[in-house]
Amino acid sequence: MGLFLCLQGNTYHFRIAVPKSLRPYLGKREIKKSLCTGNKLVARGNSLILGGKVKRAISLARITMSNDKLSEIEKSEIIRGFFDFLLKVQDRHLDTDYSDYPILRLLEKEMGLNVQPCISEMRNSEENQLNKAIKNHHDKDFENLKFLVEASALYHEQKLPKGAFCGSFLNALSLAQIDATKIIIARKQGNNPPIPEQYRIDKPFNEQHRNVTPTEFEKTTSVSLTKVTKVIEEYSKDRLAIGKWTDKTREENHALYNNFLEFAGKDIRCADINYHLISEFRDALKRLPANRKKSKKYRRKTIAQIMKMDVPNPMSITTVNKNLNRLSTILNFAVKLGYMPTNPAEGMEIPITEKDSEQRNIFDNSDLQKLFNSEQYYNDSFLHPFMFWACPIALFTGMRQTEIAQLHLFDIYEKDSIWVVNVNDNAKDKKVKNRNARRLIPLHSFLVNTLNLPRYVKHLKEQGHKRLFPEINYHRDGYGQAVSRWFNGHGDGVTTGYKKNCGITDGKKVFHSFRHTVINHLKQKQVDGTLLHEFDGHSLGTMTYDRYGKAFTPELMYEKIVSQITFDKELDLAHLMKSKYVID
């Protein structure tokens, strides 16, 4: 057995990691306790004793949290029995026609009493019970629920082992309580809604399996017991095999899948996923902080713990929808493989009311003046060349940060007497967003003549370099991450970026705003839409243009699009010519 010792200051501590499967239940990632001694020999003895106790406790917890003590048939019967029990408890308030509170109605009829206030109060109590049941379900507070289930099992003479209250079974019981309370409220309002099929006590779990033993039944329904983790594994292999994913894409998607698995449980099966669960997951996402894994305040906390906190900056609706979209893709794949009949996550995204053009703000001329008239530009004190070049290249070409950061020197050349930049993915360390992003962009005269970019390229070639910004190292996200972190900050709420140092604090104004800015600049000048789409690398929207049409000539693109960019005349940029990076 390990010693699980760690020294903090002059005192030894016992420290052991909580298994991932138990973290959602215990609400912590590790168990840590001071051994109250600085003597290593004494600490070792105490640690061995404590370690043995903790190991036994973890083993017991694993047994208690196991779902294997009840068969699927038994679980279904308990859930249906529990639903029936809740309705029977309330039926004493109803007559055979589901007219609510018959005794009070009789008093009203025979004695002329006003019983409506009393009835309203009782109805409100049911609504309060529903709200409380929903809140408890969201908070995973199942203590009262367990008491009711035990009473139901006693009423129906059902087997209920001590280790039964766990995982997806407990979640399903909680949903049954919510659904039953909704029907009770509907009945007391004079309605008589039908009992959902999965709760009908007169309908066996599955007619064809009535006389099949639990073990045989679970063998015949192995498909429905498939875990979501298996679907994710199979889908990942498929995407990598056909070249749809890179290693980075896989890592990004798995981070989103893990959000759902942390919320619903690592062992959740396809059969356990329903509309209620997806709806709760969506609500939880809306309450989680943006970039929680990067924040010291949140990254070691579980989703259940965070949901009890006041989070000032929750993740954006776009990010919430991204999580739901990726989950829906996985469940669609599960449907295709026959692991589940339908995809309950389909169509669960939150509608976004603002237009695409409003999701990122543009830089106005006041912002641009701040960015290009900073102390670093005036004093020529940028630490690296890319910090000088990235902003003017983005402003006069509309290129994305990764497209700029990954440029090779041979991507900038003269064609038909016009200097162009070739956006492509013709090297292993380069990538483009989509096939339309591969394009030739004529370089603006400010970049060619004023800042002498072609001469800077020649200078780097003479020094033996291959890339425009050799100081940027390749990372998981490519070269663009360096530009993003320098300009936008690290996203941890602590490390500020260049834009914030320039006095731009709007969270919707980021490096990508340069691209929006130049596109809006051209749009306001009513340039040709087809030419503009080729300039910015967007689809033209028709097969005729996208598939069969050839690229426009650099001369035409320069005349109709690039020459219409007039930031060099609207802003004070003359001091940029004095930089050491502008080669005469």
From TrEMBL:
Belongs to the 'phage' integrase family. This is Tyrosine-type recombinase/integrase. InterPro entries: DNA_brk_join_enz (IPR011010), DUF6538 (IPR046668), Integrase-like_cat_sf (IPR013762), Integrase_catalytic (IPR002104), Integrase_recombinase_N (IPR010998), SAM-like_dom (IPR025269), Tyrosine_recombinase_XerCD (IPR050090). Keywords: DNA recombination, DNA-binding. It comes from the Bacteria. Residues 358-562 form the Tyr recombinase domain. GO terms for biological process: DNA integration; DNA recombination. The keyword Heme does not apply. GO terms for molecular function: DNA binding.
